[in-house]
Amino acid sequence: MKPLLSKTTKPFIIYVLVILLMSIPVYYFIVDTIWQNELDEHNKTIAEKTAYEFNHLKLSDEALNESIKLWNSIQPETNIEKLKFNSRKRDEYFTIEKAETFSTEPEIERYRCLEKVVYINNQPFLFTVQTNIEESRETIAAIALNTAFFFAIIVLGLLVLNRRLSAVVWHPFRNTLEKLKNFNLNHQIKIEFEKTDTTEFEELHQSLSKLIEHSISVYKTQKEFTENASHELQTPLAIIKHKLDILLQNEDLTSKQYEIVEDINKALTRSSRINKNLLLLAKIENSQFDTTENILLNNAVRQSIELLEEHFYQKNIKVESSLEVEVFVNGNMSLTEVLINNLIVNAIRHTPQNGFIDMKLMNTSFQIANSGTGKLNEDFLFKRFSRLSADSNGSGLGLSIIYEICKFQKWKINYKFENSQHIFTVDF
């Protein structure tokens, strides 16, 4: 995962690098062209000034020829040659490369040259002048170093600016993100977003406010429906249950009728249990329980074991428990009892005939392990109405209730399958 700023900064830096690299030959071409134009002007000025000085001396033809010879011998980069007639229509500018003959280590140098016809004593002379041009390698190296220097400044500046701008510009976004992380739909408290002068953030806040308001409204409606449905079903279910009990006591029922009524009674009992569990889940989600009670877990576990002793006997399950250490926790007594009962019932349900259940109570956790034949599907372990065994008597809500109780009391429930044992651990 990369921050948004790094994703935008990296392409920008690459773009700047490419542009600066492309600019090096462009800079070189521009600088070289300007330098050649300046040298052309310089050479032209030398030629014109030299002709002017010779004319100003007003030498005889013989003295002029001697002076030109002397000039050519002491000025190696210039040459004056007499012409019989002027056949050139314009000045010629060109560039040549030659070795420096006067140097101990001759190097190839570039020269900008001018051939221009000048008139001295009204006679045409071809004036040639050569001026050394800065080496191209040195020019390119200087431009490259200059480009690299400014690229380093740009990158450093971008990194510094990004950090500072990130702290200022993205502050409303981070504040909004933090509030969304702490938002809990169960509490049904609307989020008050920070006012900002950034249009995009304001639009985001307005959209989020509408979404949260709609979610809270839908959640309230769904919660009220669940509560009302579960609560209102209790009375008719109880009446039907009572009527079925009376009907079962009727001596005029045939064996076939008795079986039908018994099946109806079992289905009704399961429906009533599901209804009570759904109502319990709704109350847990609505935070309708106090979690400040000081509970001695040892007694709660012993009571659950005694209550379910008949079930152990029916499947010939060997029960081992380690409850010697007194463990006190803060929570809700009734919810904790439901949690322990559901854990033990779940262990009984997934323990084969003649199996075993081992319970350990420690200072910071309660662990229950039972023999089993295969690992439970962890993807559906705490999902409502998920079927993890062939037992049709369960409501499919036992583990969901365990998970919600742990979440409500800020405990953690973990499951693993080791050495042919299902192991559930509740960390307080």
Automatic annotation (TrEMBL):
Q: Name one GO cellular component term.
A: plasma membrane
SMART domains linked to this entry = HisKA
For the Histidine kinase domain, which residue ranges apply?
A: 228-428
InterPro entries attached here?
Answer: HATPase_C_sf (IPR036890), HATPase_dom (IPR003594), His_kinase_dom (IPR005467), HisK_dim/P_dom (IPR003661), HisK_dim/P_sf (IPR036097), TCS_sensor_his_kinase (IPR050428)
Query: In which domain of life is the source organism classified?
Result: Bacteria
Which reaction does this enzyme catalyse, per its entry?
ATP + protein L-histidine = ADP + protein N-phospho-L-histidine
- Which species expresses this protein natively? Chryseobacterium piscium
UniProt GO MF annotations: phosphorelay sensor kinase activity
Per the UniProt entry, the Enzyme Commission number(s) are 2.7.13.3
- What transmembrane ranges does the database entry give? 12-30, 140-161
Query: What are the alphabetically sorted keywords of the record?
Result: Kinase, Membrane, Phosphoprotein, Transferase, Transmembrane, Transmembrane helix
Q: Which CDD domains does the protein's record reference?
A: HATPase, HisKA
- Its recorded name reads histidine kinase
Kind of enzyme, top EC level? Answer: transferase
Q: Which PANTHER family does the record cross-reference, listed alphabetically?
A: SENSOR HISTIDINE KINASE TRCS, SENSOR HISTIDINE KINASE YKOH
